[in-house]
Each structure stands twice: as structure tokens, then as C-alpha cells.
Amino acid sequence: MKLLKLTVLTVTLISLIGCGKSRNTSLTGWNERDMAAGGFSTPKKYKGQATPPGMVLVEGGTFTMGHVQDDVMFDWNTTPKKQQVRSFYMDQTEVTNQEYIFYLEWVEKVFPPNNENYKHIYTSTLPDTLVWRNRLGFNESLTETYLRHPAYANYPVVGVSWVQATDYCKWRTDRVNEKILMGKGIMKNLFAMDSLTVEGRDHFVTDTYLLNPRFMFDGDSSIYKRGIPVRKVRKRGQRGQRGQRGQFTGRHVKTSDGILFPKYRLPTESEWEFAAKALSENRNYNDLRGRKKYPWNGRYTRNKSKKYRGDQLANFKLGKGDYSGIAGWSNDGADITIAVRSYPPNANGLFDMAGNVAEWVADVYRPIIDTEANDFNYYRGNVFSKPKIDREGRVVIADYTTIDYDTLDNGRIVPADKPGNIIYVPITKRDAFMRNNYEKSYNVDYKDGDLASTRSFEKEEEELDARPRMYNHPTIPKVIGEGGMRRQIYDEKTRRTLISDKTRVYKGGSWADREYWLDPAQRRYLPQYSATNYIGFRCAMDRLGPMTNAKRSAYPNNKN
Questions:
Q1: Which residue, 14, 350, 407, 484, has fewest beta-carbon neighbours within 10 Å?
Q2: pLDDT value, residue 401
Q3: Among 276, 309, 306, 280, which residue's Cα sits nearest to residue 294?
């Protein structure tokens, strides 16, 4: 028996020693030294995705998306359906006034409105503070103080449209990744440099950096300090060469390094509802102990704990003319919005997933969610695109001197592409030729408003005089007057629906809503250019790799 144990131990040690010495890849027999000598990428020691600032990991899974209580509005748009959601990261709170002001100040500094080329960029990011006005209410002070006064610094930002919220997510991606590169000493702190004015082309864009770092800062390489060390195999007798003092050494960061974060974005509707319901606290092994009506457990909106018994668990409208309760003992502590983190988080660690403000999500609104089309990470709103290539075969970057602007239906002027960003264009039918997962770029109205869902399904769009109208109602026309002045004209035609391909979903109840809307399954919609005093937003991010940080012990060879 002792001999057998000794033999097994010897074989195990030999195997471990052999594995330690061998750096061969499993399929080709090349070791890391051979790959480095040939100039090939070597295996990365990736420790997993870090949690982004201000976010928590929401582990994905299956859940029933749809309403729990009676459909008193008779919208018939929350029919229960089974969905699978992938793991993702989500902001613990809504984006606050303080965070959004940092965004405004950055845009004003980098794209100063007194520059003729940039004059509409800053104004396009400003929230609509006039959403607090009421024809029969005295709220004028809120139009002047709610956004910028320190008393409201930690309150959720409102008056932001879906378009503005999406632009904020893009900007946040660049600022977070820029901070990572500065923290690793790869890039200098731009705003601390005396020789550089961070204006126009002198700012960081993640996509442009990953494409080619020389496309930014007019190709000034002095912006960068030192890159990722490059492992070089020296030949016998060869001396290493040192770079000159102050010269950039190594290489720039790539996507394959796993250093930079993926893109921030608005959560999809299914993600938001899944995160709000927090079904993990209602789980018994692999089964649910019934469905949840609110982000917290229980049928009522008041706290059941001994210490806080009777306190409201969210900020919402308690009744007609009752937004806060009786003076001296307030039911929810707020007449309008309230500072974030004022109420307990749900089981996912997310605050205010019911009450305070409703929130924009990424999806285009439709009365139904077609689970027959997709029950995995459902999302409506895909427009597949690709980088624009010029005649010389180079990727086109948005110009800093000639900026194209679009006019939204409400008259607000916005840049078509921010300077320094890669310009993307829709894919062509040739790009999608012989594919079985998509056929064209524009899939917003797929199976519900596109040509295939009309009586002209056998025809091609090029054969029709006008695009079929289902959810595609005409936009408000713009008339260009003398001197280039724009004026808006209301569309006087009779419309049978408010739904269009530019109508977006918002979820959750707010300070101005009754208890009915606190149910995470409820859904409403507004045009993507609209803003209100009760809708805010929070950001989300894809989880890369395994669904959870927990390691699976059943498979010891699993390195994830």
C-alpha cells in the first residue's frame, strides 16, 4: 500500500514539474518564447473583469418578464413572458446632478460654445430645466436651482432626453478609460499639462485610440509616457537597447490586453426589469417562492422591520395632493425627488429601482415583446453599422472644423458626430449577403412595422413610392427661412398612434407617480427627444467572460 502511494506521488510530481517547465500551447506546440521571438501575441494573464466605478454585478439568469398585478390601464403591453438575461453591470444609483455637471463642464471646456464650430455641442447636452414649470403651479425656483445648486447635488438629474442620456454613456466610456491609461502611466494627465489646451482635437476617445493612437492630439506622441512592456528575446551576445529619455517605449494598449472597460450604455428593458426585481432573494435552490410585486419582498410599500416599521420603502405619490405625507412626520421624506441612497437597496445592491425617478432604457417601444423572435437578451433597436472608409481605404474620423448637425423634432440642434469620434455608417445588403442571422442594417421595426410585416411583404422597399406606414409616422417638418433661420411647424395631420421608431421605453415609478407604477414590470414610452421632471437614467455595461465571480469547483481544470 505504501509503495502504491509512493508511486502515485512520484507520478504526480513528475507531471507537475513537466507542466511547470512546458510553456507549450495546447494545439500547436509553440511555447511563449517561440511566439515572442516571432513577434506573435503571447497568452495574457487575465484576472477577470474589474467592477466599474459606481456599479455592481447583476448575475444573469432566467425570469418571467411582465406584470404581476392587474392591468388597470388596459394597455395589454406587459403580458408575462420567459426571458434569459446575460450578466451585466449596473449603476448603483441614478446619475446625479453633480455627476452630470462634470459632464457639462467638460464639454464646455473641450468644445467652448464661443467657438463657431462648436457652438451647438454644449447646448445639445444641457438638460431642459424648464420641465419644472406648471401652468397652475409655482415651481419657478426649481428651474433655476435644481440642476446646479449644491442642495440638489446628489439628487438624480432630470430634464434629460433619451438622446442626451445615450451621449452621456459614450462620454463616460472615454473618461473612465482615459483615467485608466493615466493611472497606469501610459498617458499624461491632459488637464495638468501647461503646454496643452484640451480643446477640440486634443481629447481622448476610446475607439479612436484603439484604432490608432496617432489619430488624436495631431499625432503628438509626447502625450504618451510609456506603454505596455514588449517582451523581446535577445540573441546570445546581443545587448538590449534603451529608448531615449522621454521617448515612448513599449506598445499601446489593445482590446486583447483586457485593460480598458467595454462601452457604457443604457440598460435594455429586460435587463432593467430583471435587475429591479432582484429575484435572488426569493429563490429556494433552483425554484422561486412565488413572484415579486416590487423590488423588495412583500405586498406593501412600508417597511416591516422592527426598527423602521411603517417607513415607506420608496419615494412616490401617496395620493391626490399627497406627495410626502403630513408635516412633522413625513411618510417618504420628499415632495419631489430626493437624494440617491435615501432608501434601502434591493437584493442586487441597487438603489431607487422603484420611486424617486423613472428611468430611460435602451429599447424602442412596441406594445408587445415577441418572444417567438428572441427569448435571449431581448432588445429592440438594433441598427448594425460599420466604420466609414474613405477612398484611400482609411477610417474616417469626424472633423474638428466642419461639423454636421441634425435638428431633432423638438427643434434642438445636435451634432451628427462629435469631433474626434469614428464615423459609423449603416451596413449594406452586400455586407449581409448570405447571412442567416440578419439581412440589413435597420432592424428597429423587425417583424412589427417593417415591410415584411405589411401586406406588401413580397415587394422590395426600392419598388415602393413611400415606405409603408405602421409605426413610421411622418416627423415634424422643418422650414429653413431666410438667413438660415430654422422654425418648427406642428404636424397638423391626424395621427392614429404615438408610437414610432423613435419612441423609447422608460421604466419604474417616480416621485410624481402612484404606487401602481412601482411594479418593475410596468412600461411606458415617450419620444426619444422628450424630457420630463420625473425621468432620469443610469448606465449599464456588459459582463465579459463568466456569469459570476464564483469559481466552479466541479471542474478543477476550469481556469475561469
A1: 484
A2: 79
A3: 276
Q: DSSP character for 336?
A: S
Burial class (CB in 10 A: 0-12, 13-18, 19+), 150: exposed
Helix (H) or strand (E) holding 166: helix 162-183
| 548: Cβ contacts below 8 Å, ≥ 6 apart | 57, 59, 87
Alpha helices in 22-146 (DSSP H): 32-37, 97-110, 119-125, 140-145
Question: CA-CA distance, 203 to 173, in Å (whole number)?
Answer: 13
Whole-number Å distance between alpha carbons of 32 and 40:
9
| End-to-end C-alpha distance for the chain, whole angstroms | 36
Q: How many CB atoms lie within 10 A of CB 192?
A: 8
Burial of 364 (0-12, 13-18, 19+ CB in 10 A): buried
d(CA 279, CA 344): 16
What type of residue sits at position 544? L
For residues 79 and 81, give the distance between their C-alpha atoms in angstroms, rounded to a whole number.
6
Spatial separation of the C-alpha atoms in residues 411 and 405, rounded to whole Å: 12
Measured between alpha carbons, how far is 104 from 34 in angstroms, rounded to an integer? 50
Residue with cell 513528475: 14
Residue 21's Cα: distance from chain center in Å?
A: 44
Residue 11's H or E segment, with its range, is helix 2-21
Q: What are phi and psi of 130, to 5 degrees?
A: -80, 0
3-state secondary structure of 55: strand
Q: State the Cα–Cα distance between residues 158 and 163, nearest whole angstrom.
A: 13
> Alpha-carbon distance 537 to 199, whole Å?
28
